[in-house]
Amino acid sequence: MHEFYYVKLAIHRIKGDIIRKGYKISKEIQTILDKNPTDLTENEINQLFSLATEKGIDLFYFKKTGSLLPRVSKVIGILKSIYFESLLDVGSGRGAFLIPFLDMFPHISVSSMDILEERYIMLKDMEKGGLENFTASYSNICDIIVKEKSVDIVTLLEVLEHIPQVEKAIENAVRIAREYVIVSVPSKEDDNEEHIHLLTKEKLTAYFEKCNITKISFDNVHGHLIAIVRI
Question: I want to staple 152 with a disulfide (CB 3.0 to 4.6 A). Which of 2, 7, 84, 89 is the partner?
Fold first, then answer.
């Protein structure tokens, strides 16, 4: 069963959920939880997944779907071509990008933020569960106070179309990023009521130019526009 999951990340979620809720567990399970996830046997992993089912710990977002979403695959391909040591993922949501990214880039220092409490809790569980090089915050990119030029890359993936203050979000992303801001947005109108903007190349370029940024390249993939912004 577990071969269809991002096992290490799922186990950190299980650990964090148990810590947060204060579940009483057996000494055997505690011994398993105290181990590094990479050192667990198949039987021990199965025990933890069975525990998750028993306790109602949702691992849906840690399932592997066979192939990444095209827009996620494109962004990860871009990141593989860049040298960087730290990344802030804004609006991590259900982790469509973040979870495979954490699996593929375990040595990168990663911060995530989200304004939806249930999504933040899932991400925070991974941090509480001992996932190295990872922190999660319950915060808004438009309001956050973060040291200037504090991370190499800021990702805003399927986020800006939801934000009323697009200009403020972009200003803060540019302020925080040392090297790149990477954006993905829908490239055409859709029926998602939560999408309050249609951000074209021209509109995104104008927003970044207001921040004195001119090095912008664009790509398209299956209904999505991707902007790679060099700071």
Answer: 84
